[in-house]
Design goal:
This is DUF2938 family protein. The protein is mostly helical and 163 residues long. The chain is built from five helices and no strands. Helix 1 crosses helix 3, helix 1 packs antiparallel against helix 5 and helix 2 packs across helix 3.
């Protein structure tokens, strides 16, 4: 097996890229570019306690991103070699799937999220993201795509790096 697809490299760089992705998303929320708090949304799937949900959500997001890094590594292996270009392109596709598939279906599976059709209820106090996450602000889609492109770009660069 080639060095750039070694398990330890995917573990290391997958974690690093995921942390950077998470920081970009959290930073964009703190800067007022989006109202979407993905770790809170993910954490509230597991617990109604909003404070615990933030911590659990960050952990879920990091584990998901870490596991997705292995899919990126498999993609790079199919291509023959990772590159920043192929990583950025896959990151763009990843971001589009999040915005166009994952976020719109969340109300159907999330126990505490209202839907576009029914609105808030006492037990469903999260606003639905809507298509492209636009219910959380017009810049949500741009920030989310940019963060995922950077994630893919980083994996394309680092998984191809050989000491």
């Amino acid at each position: 097996m080639q060095v750039w697809l070694g398990f330890s490299q995917v573990v290391l760089w997958g974690l690093a890229a995921t942390l950077i992705l998470t920081l970009i998303l959290r930073g964009s929320q703190a800067a007022g570019l989006t109202r979407m708090d993905l770790p809170l949304i993910l954490g509230l799937i597991l617990t109604p306690d909003r404070e615990r949900a933030k911590t659990l959500g960050v952990l879920v997001h990091i584990i998901n991103g870490w596991l997705i890094a292995f899919l990126y590594a498999a993609y790079f292996r199919l291509l023959g070699q990772p590159s920043w270009e192929s990583g950025a392109l896959l990151g763009l596709l990843h971001g589009l799937v999040v915005l166009m598939v994952v976020l719109p279906v969340l109300p159907g599976i999330h126990p505490r999220m209202a839907s576009d059709a029914t609105g808030p209820e006492p037990t469903r106090n999260l606003q639905p993201p809507g298509f492209l996450g636009l219910n959380y602000g017009r810049q949500t889609a741009i920030v989310t795509l940019l963060a995922h492109v950077i994630y893919g770009l980083l994996l394309g660069l680092t998984l191809g790096w050989q000491p």
